[in-house]
Amino acid sequence: QVRLVESGGGLVQAGGSLRLSCAASGSIFSINAMSWYRQPPGKQRELVAAVTGVGSINTADSVKGRFTISRDFAKNTVYLQMNSLKPEDTAVYYCNADVSIPGGRDDYWGQGTRVTVSS
């Protein structure tokens, strides 16, 4: 069993910063990609940023230049540094990991952490 635990969400004023963390634990052989998704109120979940098992990064255009994803491979942890936050960044942010486990490979989600940006 693999568990993803997120932290770092909260309420912040527009222009402020937050740092999200997501730590993976459990029966893990290796973690392939780790990603952050978000789901704004009333909208579908969307990819924010992802980092592969070899460190390649993909960032959504809507957050490029403001958000930075990083990963600590030794700690099985991924971070999302969010700067210059805007009200439209308000969402529940979810961590996702593509994990190789005993017997195969599977996709795991965290419980979500809420980010609210006030104007």
Largest beta-sheet characterization: 7 strands, mixed
State the order of secondary-structure elements, H for helix, E for strand. EEEEEEEEEEE
The proportion of residues forming helix, as a percent range, comes to under 10%
Number of strands: 11
Average of pLDDT: 95
Low-confidence stretches: none
Helical run tally: 0
Computed structural class:
mainly beta
Radius of gyration: 14 Å
Cα distance spanning the termini: 40 Å
Q: How much strand content do the residues show? A: over 45%
Shape: elongated
Task: Identify the notable features of this structure and list them briefly.
4-stranded antiparallel sheet; 61% strand; mainly beta; single chain; 119 residues; 11 strands; elongated
Question: What is this entry, summarized?
Answer:
This protein is mostly beta strands and about 120 residues long. It contains no helices and eleven strands. The protein has strands at about 1-5, 10-15, 20-25, 30-40, 45-50, 55-60, 65-70, 75-80, 90-100, 105-110, 115-119.
